[in-house]
Structures are given as structure tokens and as C-alpha cells.
């Protein structure tokens, strides 16, 4: 358990953490207009009279945004609202061209549900959701010392889902794990890119502490706009410690909005005056209610099942993987799918996991590519693994010489190995000759070995392998060496 | 040139070569110039209209002209026309040019109508006298000492004074019907959602409709037929098929509800009481079945309307903040001051009053007491009105409690709000209603009567209105 949680417990306190996570949806167009919804360098290019909030314009809801929000809800096991309305949330800010944000206040599209947590030593298995609602993102204010404040409205109208948890996240690690799982889910479902550094996934945390057993929550501090898992974790740790210290000193915790500064690892009260905002929510008269029926939801369920929890369950049950392997293999859907495909090609699960988490991953890192880019078919890899397991190819040779050639290969790994003359040689006489040659070239070491320095065997094996150009079977090499040495 | 009342007369003369589009445009431009002091137009598109008239005259020669050729129309300064200014008669939109045309405007232009200019109105459609305008008040052509009504006052005055043949206004609580009555012409507010709101500067979105001013029922029907119907740009626009309104013909007799309590209602000008009584008697004589009803929720209609419309207006007008377009106060040192100063300098008194009212009724502490209650009342009024319309074809009332009043005679906003008493019911309920001219009062000021029908029954409304039109000629 984290030190801060232990400290809280010793003093009779407990932490209450709730998260509000904003996820940008990767729809083709914006939520209420036909403007393109993707990244662009140039400011104010993905805009139209609608996203600029010009007089006389009206919003038209993007069905794709609804679909993506429902996918998230179904994957979380939420109840999906059959009757959806939109509300206007009024406040003035320069990056909000209409003077209100169109959001869902009364009828969030998803109610309840949970985010399963995955990781070691976590205090809870899942985090319960309060709701998920659909809304539009605001634009961006860019504060420039010379030019003053500049407004970029490319982002204005980007569809967002806001995932709101219950205040039941047990601690900083659980908060980070929850956010990680949300990112995984978003990517598995294909509803967003969830790059935190690009602001496609943003997190606010509401943090308070209360005496154990108190039914009322403590004074809530909201930490805004964190964009990394570790920031959320560190901010929560800092904030819990800060609040505990205040309580122990008999000082009040001020209800406020704070920011986290990654440079210092501390949270700071935001300078602007935080009066109680009255957003005057009211139903948007420009958007007719959206009614979702059973058939619509049933149609989306199969896609919603493509989520990390389902994959983890299936991979655990079917392949008995270690938590370590499971974690790596299910981090991304394409990795998990690749793994399953490898197993279907007849590769042993453990072996498939080892190959994927070992040599394949190294190759991907070297080439700076991901699985879909590298173009090594599971059939190719399965054949390569089989060659190794059948002792037709030496593991190191397979990894170092053959694997990197697979991406561009038009031939099967076997053909390739044959052409490159890499297959294990079955020629005993040739091997015996190499062994003799090696021992003669290393007289001191041979002497030492015979006197008991058995560790030198590795050196001899290495030399023989080198001389055989990776074609000798290491097991046979060892047998032959021992025979010759003894 | 002869004074035309119907487009088909114009089109007949065009096809006979008696007149040309260019002559028509010149004629209206002359009238606009003649009646400049009425302040009906904010901007006249003289050169563009002439140019377009020349093009259309060629099309007539080639027999390729569209169905609305010869129609010269004006546009309330609350509806967008691409690459032209639209101000909502407000300082806050000074110099703002729209980048697109309202769907209704586009549809008229596609059928070869000619747009001759934008017309004065109350700021953002808020008012009943056209006195709340950044462009100054418009005047009633019947008596320039009097208001033309509002908010679409300039449009009504222009059609009545023959400065254009028809005009598009907007009607949120009576803003087409009331000025039509004051100026002695026809004014239709169609069923909510019948005409796309794309390009209409929002005042109260769940009430706003584009409305039509005309000098005949026939033209009103033709214009509605041209501009009504589903528009993908307005999610609230109805997909119901558009009827052939221009073919509307009365069939036999109708069942008509009226409110006897209005015969001696002290809020009503006596001549209007008389006219209403006489109309009811005449209808009875003509063989229609007249049914007595009482005005449902009479004392709640105006409060319900003003709570809901100001609530919607307070958010609809939030976009006019000085940050993006229109007026930005030059006297501000920080963001908050910029907002406050721009909106204070940009909006007139009535608009500010309604924004504050709307902000108040939506505020957390009063939301349930006002907004929620008003929403419930809206449903009750709608149900009660629809219940009457289940039994009858129409509900008839006077359009206004008085005829056109003098400028600056309604000092209190509440007195002004009373001018909407009969028109807001149809707006609350989203029902179609038309004001038809029905004689004059002792000062020779026009009286208008309102016919309200069931949702999407404009065809029947036009058919019945034609009977009234024929009777009054």
C-alpha cells in the first residue's frame, strides 16, 4: 500500500477520489457540423459558420458520435439512455463561440457501468461509473505575450465523451489504473486515439479525505486538466498528503480548483476567483431528442465486446498466460489479436508470448513500427517458430538473421533459410571437424576446462556456432564438445 | 404601373409583355424612395435587383424563368442573405456580413424571385412596435404617426406601401401577424418546424418561425409552398410532405371556435370587439358552425410566453459577446470588462431586459419556480388548445387588442407585452395562424383578425382565409 494511504489509515482517515475523464472521439466530422475533426497544424482551418457560432446557424447531431459514445457505454456495462436530450451550459469564454457549451445534463447517454482495473497490488478490481455524457469540446485560447490571447477554433465542436466515476476510486494507483484502462478501452473500441499528450484524453480529479465511517464527503478539491497517468497519480498523492496535513494541523481544506505542476510535483490553487458558477443548464431547443432502440443497441454489442476486459478473460482462460505476458499482450488489441492468430497457427501459447514479447517487440522497437506496420504475417512467424522448435533452425539465427528479413520477404521462412544456407546442418563429420578445430585453436582453455573450469563450455559452444555460421544445433554442439573434451 | 395584389396578375402581365421585371424593380425602387420617411428598409439592394431583373427578363424571353419570376420580395433584417449585412436591428452586429443565405431565401431565389432589400424590425425580434431598432423606428404607412407593429414592422410597412410585393419576416410571438394587422395585409405564422430556421437569427428557438407578409392569401400560399419543407441544416425542421397550398380551395362550411368573453373584454378596443362580433355573426349566417369556447389559461399565456422566450433568448444571444464578430467595446481593459461593455453598448434596453429576465428564470435558485412551471404550462396550454382544435377546424380571435398605436405611446414594457395577447397562443402551441385584414376602425386604421388552425393544416387555413378575402373585397 502507498505510504500516503497508510498514513491516512493510521490517522483514521480515508481518501475519496473521483475522476472526470474527457475523451475526444475520432469521428470524421465534428459533433454538430460537417467540419473536419482531425488534427491540423494551421489554426482556424477546420471551422465553418457553425463552429464559429455565427448568427442564424443551427447544430445537427453527428450520428457517429452517438454510436461511439454508446460503444463505450456498452463496453462499460452501462445502462444506455433510450431518450437523449442535449442541454446548453452557459458561460462566457473566448474559446466558446456560442456562449454556451452543448452537453448532456439531464439525460447522459450512459448511466452507471464500471471500469475494470488491471494491474498488481491494486486495492479494487473495478471503478464504478456515475455516467458518461456526450458534449462538444471548446476551442483553444493561446496566450501569447506579444500578440495577446489568440483563439483557435479547430477544436471547437470536437465530440467528447465525459466519463464520470463515482467518488469511489481507492487511491492514486487505482486512479492511474482507471485512466489507463479507459485509454485501452477507447483504443480497443476504435472510438478515439486517446493520446494524452495531444489532449485527446484529459483527466480532472476530485479529491477529498474524510474520517473513516463519516457518511459525508470531505471538502472537495478539483485538480484540472492532467494529461498523463503519472501526473494523476502524483497529484493525488500530493493532494492527499496536503489535505491530511491541513486536517492534522486543525486547518480547513478550502474547496477550490487546483492545477498540478509536473515540474514540482505539487498542486497549486488557481488564481482566478472561483465563485459558484451557475451554468443555467437548459434543454437545447435546436436539437430534437435522440431515441435509441433495442435493435440499435444490439447491433453495436458485438463491437462493444472488442474490449480489453473480454480479451484478458479469453486469453487467461484459453492460454493460461502469466499476468506479465497477459499485460503486455493485451495492452493493445492488435497485439492480442496477433497473439491469438499465432496460437491458431499451432504455436504453443507460452512460446508465442515469448516470441512476441521478446524478439518481435525488439524488432518493432528497432524499426520504430507497430504490428500493423511491420508486415510480418502470423503465418510467417508461426513457421519460423516451428523451424526453431523442430531444431531445423537455431534460435539465435532465427532471431538475428531471419526475423528481420521477414517483413520484405516474398518467400516462406523455410525457403528463405534454405537460400541463405541457415538451416541446421545434419552433417556430423563437418561438425566434428569444427569442434576439433576450435579445441586446437584454444589449447589453454581446453587445458583449463579439463582441469575443472567447466564454465568455459559456453565459450567453446559460441566458437563452434560462429564457425558453423549459426547452422549447428546448439544441443548437438554441446554433446559433441563434451565428447571431445572428456 | 398598376398596383398588383397577386403574383399571378404580375406574371400574366409579364408573359403578355405588358411589363418587365426591370420595370417592376424600378417601380418598387421608386416607391421605396417615395416612402423613405417610413424607414421600412435598412438597406436597399437597388443595383443587384436591377441586374437580376435584367437577367430574368432574358430568361422570360427564353421561356426559362422559374415559377416565382416577377416576385419582388423584402427580407427582415433578422434573416441571413449571403455576403450581405445582417444586423438583427442591433448595434452589436454592426457591419456583420453573413456568409450564407437562409434556406427560405435560397429557395425563393432559386425560383427566380428578386430580393430588393433588408427591412427594419425590433432588435432581435423583441418588440411589438418596431421602436426597439438600432436603425430607428419604422412607421405605419396608413398613418406615419403610428407604429407599423413589430417586430417585423418594416416588412409589413413595405408590403402595405407597395415597396415590395411580399416579405419574409419572423414570428416568435406574433411578430408577423401583429404588424400585418396594423398595416392591413396578410401575415402568416406557419406551424413550428414547417419552414427551416437555418439563417434566422435565433430569439427563442422553440418558438421562432419564418413568416410571410403578402397582399393576398394566394401569394402567401405560394410563398409557403416554395419555402416550406425539410432542411438537413435544421434538425427541427419537419419532414412532412409540403401540401400544394396554392391549390387550397374552401370546401363547404367549417366548424369554428370563438371566445365570447372577448365581445366585451375591457382590454379590447371597442371597434375590435364590434368587428369580432360582426365576423362571428356573418360566419354563422354563411352556414359555418360556430362553437363557444373560453380562452384557455388566459392569464397564464403571456407569463408562460415571456418566461420561456426570455430563457431561450438569454442563451441564444450569448454569442454576441464582442469576442468573435460584431461590436467590441473599445473601452475595456480585461476580458470581463470587454464582455460587459460590449454587451451593454451593443444591446438596446428591451434586449437587455429580456436577457436579464431569461438569465434570472434559468438561475439555479429560480429555475423550478419559473422555468419548470412555465414548461408545464406550455404543455397544458398546448393540450387545451389542441383539444379545442379536435372539435373544430379553426379558432378565431382578433389579431390584436387595439389597432396601430402612436409612437412612444406604450411607455411600459408590460403595456407593450399586452399587444401580443392573442398571437402568443399559437406560438406557445406551435400552431399555424394567419392574420387577415377585416375593415378599419373609426380612424381608418386597419383591423386584423386571426385564424388559428391545427398543426400542419395550413392548406385549410388558406382555404378559409380566401373566403374572408373575398368577403372583404
Automatic annotation (TrEMBL), chain A:
It catalyses: L-aspartyl-tRNA(Asn) + L-glutamine + ATP + H2O = L-asparaginyl-tRNA(Asn) + L-glutamate + ADP + phosphate + 2 H(+); L-glutamyl-tRNA(Gln) + L-glutamine + ATP + H2O = L-glutaminyl-tRNA(Gln) + L-glutamate + ADP + phosphate + H(+). It is an enzyme of class 6 (ligase). It comes from the Bacteria. Keywords: ATP-binding, Ligase, Nucleotide-binding, Protein biosynthesis. Residues 337-485 form the Asn/Gln amidotransferase domain. InterPro entries: Asn/Gln-tRNA_amidoTrfase_suB/E, Asn/Gln-tRNA_Trfase_suB/E_cat, Asn/Gln_amidotransferase, Asn/Gln_tRNA_amidoTrase-B-like, GatB, GatB_C_1, GatB_Yqey_C_2, Gln-tRNA_amidoTrfase_suB_CS. PROSITE patterns: GATB. Pfam families: GatB_N, GatB_Yqey. Its EC number is 6.3.5.-. PANTHER family: GLUTAMYL-TRNA GLN AMIDOTRANSFERASE SUBUNIT B MITOCHONDRIAL AND PROKARYOTIC PET112-RELATED. NCBIfam families: gatB (TIGR00133), PRK05477.1-2 (NF004012), PRK05477.1-4 (NF004014). HAMAP family: GatB (MF_00121). Belongs to the GatB/GatE family. GatB subfamily. Heterotrimer of A, B and C subunits. Allows the formation of correctly charged Asn-tRNA(Asn) or Gln-tRNA(Gln) through the transamidation of misacylated Asp-tRNA(Asn) or Glu-tRNA(Gln) in organisms which lack either or both of asparaginyl-tRNA or glutaminyl-tRNA synthetases. The reaction takes place in the presence of glutamine and ATP through an activated phospho-Asp-tRNA(Asn) or phospho-Glu-tRNA(Gln). This is Aspartyl/glutamyl-tRNA(Asn/Gln) amidotransferase subunit B. The lineage of its organism: Bacteria, Pseudomonadati, Bacteroidota, Cytophagia, Cytophagales. The gene is gatB.
UniProtKB/TrEMBL annotation, chain B:
Its EC number is 6.3.5.7. Residues 126-151 are annotated as: Disordered. Keywords: ATP-binding, Ligase, Nucleotide-binding, Protein biosynthesis. InterPro entries: Amidase (IPR000120), Amidase_CS (IPR020556), Amidase_dom (IPR023631), AS_sf (IPR036928), GatA (IPR004412). Pfam families: Amidase. It comes from the Bacteria. Residues 24-461 form the Amidase domain. Signal peptide: none annotated. The active site is at 76 (charge relay system), 151 (charge relay system), 175 (acyl-ester intermediate). Gene3D superfamilies: Amidase signature (AS) domain. It catalyses: L-glutamyl-tRNA(Gln) + L-glutamine + ATP + H2O = L-glutaminyl-tRNA(Gln) + L-glutamate + ADP + phosphate + H(+). PROSITE patterns: AMIDASES. Allows the formation of correctly charged Gln-tRNA(Gln) through the transamidation of misacylated Glu-tRNA(Gln) in organisms which lack glutaminyl-tRNA synthetase. The reaction takes place in the presence of glutamine and ATP through an activated gamma-phospho-Glu-tRNA(Gln). Belongs to the amidase family. GatA subfamily. PANTHER family: GLUTAMYL-TRNA(GLN) AMIDOTRANSFERASE SUBUNIT A, MITOCHONDRIAL, TRANSAMIDASE. Heterotrimer of A, B and C subunits. This is Glutamyl-tRNA(Gln) amidotransferase subunit A. The lineage of its organism: Bacteria, Pseudomonadati, Bacteroidota, Cytophagia, Cytophagales.
Amino acid at each position: 500500500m502507498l505510504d500516503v494511504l497508510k498514513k491516512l489509515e493510521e490517522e483514521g482517515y480515508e481518501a475519496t477520489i473521483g475522476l472526470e475523464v474527457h475523451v475526444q472521439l475520432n469521428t470524421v466530422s465534428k459533433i454538430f457540423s460537417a467540419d473536419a475533426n482531425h488534427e491540423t497544424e494551421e489554426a482556424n482551418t477546420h471551422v465553418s459558420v457553425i463552429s464559429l457560432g455565427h448568427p442564424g446557424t443551427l447544430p445537427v447531431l453527428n450520428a457517429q458520435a452517438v454510436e461511439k459514445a454508446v460503444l463505450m457505454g456498452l463496453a462499460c456495462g452501462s445502462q444506455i439512455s433510450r431518450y437523449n436530450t442535449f442541454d446548453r451550459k452557459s458561460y462566457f469564454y473566448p474559446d466558446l463561440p456560442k456562449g454556451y457549451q452543448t452537453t448532456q445534463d439531464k439525460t447522459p447517454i450512459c448511466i452507471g457501468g464500471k471500469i475494470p482495473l488491471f494491474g498488481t497490488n491494486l486495492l479494487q478490481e473495478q471503478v464504478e461509473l456515475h455516467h458518461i455524457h456526450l458534449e462538444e469540446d471548446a476551442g483553444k485560447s493561446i496566450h501569447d505575450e506579444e500578440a495577446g490571447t489568440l483563439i483557435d477554433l479547430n477544436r471547437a465542436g470536437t465530440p467528447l465523451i465525459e466519463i464520470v466515476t463515482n467518488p469511489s476510486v481507492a487511491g492514486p494507483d487505482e486512479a492511474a489504473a482507471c485512466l489507463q484502462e479507459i485509454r485501452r478501452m477507447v483504443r480497443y473500441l476504435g472510438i478515439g486515439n486517446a493520446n494524452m499528450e495531444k489532449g485527446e484524453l484529459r483527466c480532472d480529479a476530485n479529491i477529498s479525505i474524510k474520517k473513516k465511517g463519516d457518511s459525508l464527503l470531505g471538502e472537495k478539491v478539483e485538480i484540472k486538466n492532467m494529461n498523463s497517468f503519472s501526473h494523476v497519480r502524483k497529484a493525488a498523492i500530493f493532494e492527499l498528503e496536503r489535505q491530511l496535513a491541513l486536517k492534522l494541523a486543525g486547518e480547513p481544506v478550502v474547496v477550490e480548483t487546483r492545477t498540478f505542476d509536473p515540474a514540482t510535483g505539487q498542486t497549486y490553487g488557481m488564481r482566478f476567483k472561483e465563485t459558484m458558477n451557475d451554468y443555467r443548464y437548459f434543454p437545447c431547443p435546436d436539437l430534437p431528442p435522440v431515441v435509441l432502440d433495442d435493435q440499435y443497441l444490439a447491433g453495436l454489442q458485438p463491437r462493444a465486446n472488442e474490449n480489453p476486459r473480454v480479451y484478458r478473460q479469453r486469453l487467461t482462460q484459453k492460454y493460461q498466460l502469466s499476468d506479465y505476458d497477459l499485460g503486455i499482450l493485451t495492452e493493445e488489441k492488435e497485439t492480442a489479436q496477433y497473439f491469438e492468430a499465432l496460437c491458431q497457427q499451432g504455436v504453443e501459447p507460452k512460446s508465442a508470448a515469448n516470441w512476441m514479447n521478446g524478439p518481435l517487440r525488439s524488432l518493432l522497437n528497432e524499426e520504430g513500427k507497430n504490428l500493423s506496420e511491420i508486415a510480418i504475417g502470423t503465418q510467417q512467424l508461426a513457421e519460423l517458430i516451428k523451424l526453431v522448435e523442430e531444431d531445423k533452425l537455431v534460435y539465435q539465427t532465427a532471431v538475428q538473421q531471419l526475423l528481420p528479413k521477414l517483413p520484405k520477404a516474398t518467400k516462406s521462412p523455410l525457403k528463405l533459410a534454405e537460400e541463405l544456407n541457415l538451416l541446421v546442418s545434419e552433417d556430423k563429420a563437418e561438425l566434428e571437424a569444427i569442434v576439433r578445430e576450435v579445441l586446437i585453436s584454444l589449447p589453454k582453455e581446453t587445458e583449463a576446462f579439463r582441469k575443472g573450469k567447466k564454465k568455459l563450455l559456453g565459450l567453446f559452444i559460441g566458437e563452434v556456432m560462429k564457425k558453423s555460421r549459426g547452422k549447428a544445433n546448439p544441443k548437438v554442439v554441446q554433446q559433441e564438445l563434451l565428447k571431445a573434451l572428456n | 404601373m398598376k398596383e398588383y395584389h397577386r403574383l399571378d396578375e404580375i406574371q400574366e402581365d409579364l408573359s403578355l409583355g405588358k411589363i418587365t421585371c426591370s420595370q417592376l424593380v424600378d417601380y418598387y425602387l421608386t416607391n421605396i424612395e417615395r416612402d423613405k420617411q417610413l424607414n421600412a428598409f435598412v438597406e436597399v439592394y437597388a443595383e443587384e435587383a436591377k441586374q437580376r431583373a435584367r437577367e430574368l427578363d432574358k430568361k422570360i424571353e427564353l421561356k426559362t424563368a422559374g415559377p416565382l419570376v416577377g416576385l419582388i420580395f423584402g427580407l427582415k433584417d433578422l434573416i441571413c442573405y449571403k455576403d450581405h449585412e445582417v444586423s438583427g436591428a442591433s448595434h452589436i452586429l454592426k457591419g456583420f456580413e453573413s456568409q450564407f443565405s437562409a434556406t427560405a431565401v435560397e429557395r425563393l431565389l432559386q425560383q427566380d424571385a428578386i430580393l430588393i432589400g433588408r427591412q427594419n424590425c425590433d432588435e432581435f425580434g423583441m418588440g411589438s412596435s418596431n421602436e426597439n431598432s438600432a436603425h430607428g423606428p419604422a412607421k405605419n404607412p396608413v398613418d406615419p404617426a403610428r407604429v407599423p407593429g413589430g417586430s417585423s414592422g418594416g416588412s409589413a410597412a413595405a408590403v402595405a406601401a407597395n415597396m415590395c410585393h411580399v416579405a419574409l419576416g419572423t414570428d416568435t410571438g406574433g411578430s408577423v401577424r401583429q404588424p400585418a394587422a396594423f398595416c392591413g395585409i396578410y401575415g402568416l405564422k406557419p406551424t413550428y418546424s414547417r419552414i427551416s430556421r437555418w439563417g434566422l437569427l435565433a430569439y427563442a428557438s422553440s418558438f421562432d418561425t419564418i413568416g410571410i407578409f403578402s397582399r393576398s392569401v394566394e401569394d402567401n400560399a405560394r410563398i409557403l409552398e416554395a419555402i416550406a419543407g425539410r432542411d438537413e441544416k435544421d434538425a427541427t425542421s419537419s419532414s412532412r410532405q409540403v401540401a400544394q397550398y396554392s391549390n387550397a380551395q374552401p370546401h363547404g362550411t367549417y366548424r369554428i371556435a370563438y371566445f365570447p368573453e372577448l365581445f366585451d373584454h375591457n382590454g379590447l378596443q371597442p371597434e375590435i370587439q364590434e368587428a369580432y362580433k360582426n365576423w362571428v355573426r356573418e360566419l354563422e349566417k354563411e352556414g359555418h358552425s360556430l362553437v363557444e369556447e373560453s380562452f384557455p389559461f388566459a392569464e397564464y399565456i403571456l407569463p408562460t410566453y415571456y418566461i420561456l422566450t426570455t430563457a431561450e433568448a438569454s442563451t441564444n444571444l450569448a454569442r454576441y459577446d464582442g469576442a468573435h464578430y460584431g461590436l467590441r467595446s473599445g473601452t475595456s481593459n480585461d476580458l470581463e470588462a470587454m464582455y460587459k461593455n460590449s454587451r451593454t453598448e451593443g444591446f438596446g434596453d428591451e434586449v437587455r431586459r429580456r436577457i436579464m429576465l431569461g438569465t434570472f428564470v434559468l438561475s439555479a435558485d429560480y429555475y423550478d419556480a419559473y422555468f419548470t412551471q412555465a414548461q408545464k404550462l406550455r404543455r397544458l396550454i398546448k393540450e387545451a388548445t389542441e383539444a379545442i382544435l379536435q372539435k373544430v377546424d379553426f379558432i378565431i380571435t382578433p389579431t390584436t387588442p387595439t389597432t396601430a398605436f402612436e409612437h412612444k405611446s406604450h411607455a411600459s414594457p408590460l403595456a407593450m407585452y399586452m399587444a401580443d395577447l392573442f398571437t402568443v397562443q399559437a406560438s406557445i402551441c406551435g400552431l399555424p395562424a394567419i392574420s387577415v385584414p377585416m375593415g378599419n376602425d373609426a380612424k381608418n386604421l386597419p383591423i386584423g383578425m386571426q385564424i388559428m388552425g391545427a398543426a400542419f393544416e395550413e392548406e385549410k387555413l388558406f382555404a378559409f382565409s380566401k373566403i374572408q378575402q373575398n368577403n372583404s373585397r
